[in-house]
Every structure is written in structure tokens, then in C-alpha cells.
Amino acid sequence: MTYVLRRILVLGCFATFMPLAAMAQGAPSAPPPVTVAKPVVRDVIDNDEFIGRFQPVDEVSVRSRVGGYLQEIHFEDGALVKQGDLLFVIDQRPFVTALNQAKAALESAQSTLVFADAQYKRTQSLISSGSQSAQTLDDRRREFDSAEANVRGAQAAADRAALDMEYTEIKAPLSGRIDRHLLSTGNLVQADQTVLTTIVSLDPIDFYFDVDERRLLNFADTARKQGKDLQLGGGGVDVSVTISDATAKPFTGKLDFAENRVDNESGTIRLRARVPNPDLILQPGLFGRVQVAASNTYKAILVPDEAIGSDQNERVVYVVNAEGKVTTKPVRPGPRLYGYRVIREGLDGTETIIVNGLIRARPGSKITPQMSELPQERQDTPPESANAESGQ
């Protein structure tokens, strides 16, 4: 009896564990969950990025128009000055003396003119009675004309002396930031030669950069399609300039100039963008990166960079069909815009692609798709160079 009970218990336990073992060995595993989404389709404009340098719109080397000894300096080094502000004063005493001398010569010439005029009129009144000859009248006329010419010459000399006197006060020819004074008081200033300081304008400010031939043709074509001429005012194309300060927002401006020929040695042409600078943050000489529209508006297919994989020398994306089966599609990536990568070729925007979890997907396998929706623009990724293209 005891043997029979023991046999029944053993058979019961064996029957109980048999289904569990069978399930552990033969039950198929569920497909791995993977995040999928539709590509973003939106209107975009391609940008190209170049490195350049800021330069002032206007720059002046301040010189004196008259020679003499520097007597006064009326500005602080590096200050902002306005057009017409007094900067330097040349010793005025020699010029005061010359002006007084010229005024005295003018008064003498005017006195001689008054006398010659009286003599001429008196001779005119006497010639009718025969008291004076025609020859005498001609002499008086000549003396009057000579005295009148002397007055004009003396007036010109007085005006020149007054102008030289005015030039002893050297004023700012334009508004902007002034450099340090390059000459101290007491030094001799040579007229039209000695540089006293420099002034550069700051608002607006120009940004110069060089463009290669291929992208020059793209810019010219973009400008033509907008009814503009790249050579005439730079086509007025909008640009965005960033500087090395990561906290500073991009500065916007417009192309306003392009050189009239491509450099034979470098194969590049220089372009200029004019950028408003009301806060005077931008300074001449700063380096910057400019982004220029390289196309007109078009419909683009955008996908995250992490959705693009590699298959030998090709770039591919993983496409999921209605049954959850994974296949690959070769694509040609383009520039990075709005936090995504532009797909030039390979997708039409209707596909469902894997955007997260590529490591869990294999071509030909099945996955458990977890549908998500990509925003029109991603702010969580830092902007990259617009011309940084993969596979191009």
C-alpha cells in the first residue's frame, strides 16, 4: 500500500512539471519594443556656413591739416565719440598771428580800393569838360581794377588764414569708437602725415567671408529666383551670424556686396553682410560663423540623426511595415536643420521608421512598434553646421 501511494505521488509531480518545462523550452519570445515615428515633412531653406571676420563700415585715420605742436587732447582713450567732437588742438598762436596779418593786409587793400574808386570817379567827371585826357581816365580805371583784384587776393589770404586757424581744432569726422592717442602733447605734428589716432564706426558693422565657386553659383541662382542680383548689393539675402560666445544670440543681417571677380589663386569670391549692432557687442576684428540661405523654400523630409544607420558604405534607415517587420532603405542625408537631418533621397515621408532602439532591430526581424510623433522642431540638440552633410 505504501509503495502504491509513493508511486502515485511521483507520477503526479512528474505530470505537474512537464507542462512547465515544455513551456520554458518551446514558447517563442515576444518581439522587442522599439520606438517608431513618421518623418517630419515641412518647408525648409538650406543654409551654408562660412567663417569670416567683422570689419567697420567706416574707418578713419585722424590727421591734422596743418603742422604745429600738439597742445591739447580732449578725449579718453577707447571712448565713444560723435561726429564733430573736439579731439585735438594744435598750438594756435602762430595761426592767430597769421590771421591778424591777413586781416590787416585785407584792410589795406580795401583802403587802396576806396581811394582808386574815388580817383576813377573824379576823372570821369572831369573828362567831359576837357580837364582830363582819355589816357588819364584809362590809368585811373587800371588802378581801380588792380586795387579791386588786390582786395580779392587779400580776402582769399584772410580766408585761408581763418581756415588754417579752424584746422588747429581737430574734430571727429565720424561717430564711433576712438583708439588711443598715438602722440602726446608737445610733439610736432606734420600736416597731412602724422596719424594722431583712428576711429571706427560700430553700428552697423560689416562681416566679410569667402565663398567657393560651387556655392557661389548656388547663391547666385537663389538670388535670381528671388528677382535679385548677387553682384548688385549682394542680392539682399538674409544671413545669421554667430560668435564664439555661446550665450549670445545669433545676429541677423543681409548680404549687400559681392566682389566682381573670383580670385584666380584661391577660387573664392568675397562677400559682405551688413549687420545691425545697436548694443555695440560686435567689434571689428572678431571672428564669426555666418549662415547663408543656399536655396529657395522647398518641402523636405527630416529624420533624427539617431534614426540613420550604416550598412557598409551606405546610410540607411530602418522601415517598419504594418506587420512589424523591419527592412532597410538606403538614403542620402543632407544638411542639419531644425534639429533633424534632411533626407535628400530614399524616403517620401509616408514611411514608418525606427527613431529609437536601432540596436534591438535587425533587417528581416519583427519588432513591437511603439508609435510616437516627432515635433516640427527639436530644441534639445545643439545646432550644427548647416553644410555638415553625411554621405555627400
TrEMBL record:
Any single Gene Ontology cellular-component annotation: cell envelope
Judging by the UniProt lineage, the source's domain of life is Bacteria
Q: Which residues form the Multidrug resistance protein MdtA-like barrel-sandwich hybrid domain?
A: 59-196
Q: Which GO terms describe its molecular function?
A: transmembrane transporter activity
GO BP, one annotated term: response to antibiotic
Q: Where is the composition biased (Polar residues)?
A: 382-392
Chain positions covered by the region annotation Disordered = 365-392
Primary location class: other
The answer on whether this UniProt entry bears the keyword Signal reads yes
Signal peptide positions (record): 1-24
Q: Where is the Multidrug resistance protein MdtA-like C-terminal permuted SH3 domain?
A: 300-358
Pfam families, alphabetized = Beta-barrel_RND (PF25944), BSH_RND (PF25917), HH_MFP_RND (PF25876), RND-MFP_C (PF25967)
Q: Where in the cell is it found?
A: Cell envelope
The Multidrug resistance protein MdtA-like beta-barrel domain extends over: 224-293
Alphabetically sorted, this entry's keywords are: Signal
Q: Which positions fall inside the Multidrug resistance protein MdtA-like alpha-helical hairpin domain?
A: 99-168
Family label: Belongs to the membrane fusion protein (MFP) (TC 8.A.1) family.
By what name is this protein known? Efflux RND transporter periplasmic adaptor subunit
From what organism does this protein derive? Answer: Rhizobium vallis
Source lineage: Bacteria, Pseudomonadati, Pseudomonadota, Alphaproteobacteria, Hyphomicrobiales
